[in-house]
Amino acid sequence: MKTQAMAKAKNARSDCLYPFKPALGNDYPSTRDFDVVPSADGLTMRITARVPFESRVCIAKISGYALSERRLHTLQLSSRIHLYDGWFSGLFPHSCTPNVFLDLHYLEVWTLCDIPAGAPLTRDYANTEDVLFRQFACQCGELNCRGWITGRDEPLNAEGQAFMARWRERKRP
């Protein structure tokens, strides 16, 4: 009997977005609530809501692997520990007006506003990272867009300084 149950569990297909679902409890992201969508160029992925979410609610717990270095898809837990999550929260694109907040103490994702079904989940990278893996030009299109995205304690690199000089020229009336 125990063997049958174990075989069933081994063959059962999990709807959890994390590949290590058997080690996790409930409340982790699943394909019932979220989609992993490739970008137009097929090089990157993002997470979209399959169902609408209300404002100011916890919508998922997050997980991953603890690393001692920053990488693409990592979230800074402390100055020396980074959480690699290439399956869910590490795929949220940046927005200067994000719709989710990552609580990295409790490893939870909270909504900042109502999120309709089909909308991408976005976060502000400067809220979670002191220094980014790589600085970049923002493409969020928000009215409050900062133009060049850095970590919260990071100065603009040379490419960012040149970009911002051109960006400010275009913004002048």
UniProtKB/TrEMBL annotation:
Keyword annotations: Transferase
Listed transmembrane segments: none
A GO MF label: transferase activity
Statement: the UniProt record of this protein carries the keyword Secreted: no
Residue ranges constituting the Post-SET domain according to the UniProt record: 134-150
PROSITE patterns linked: POST_SET
InterPro entries: Post-SET_dom, SET_dom_sf
Gene3D superfamilies named in the record: SET domain (2.170.270.10)
tRNA-binding listed as a keyword: no
Name recorded for this polypeptide: Post-SET domain-containing protein
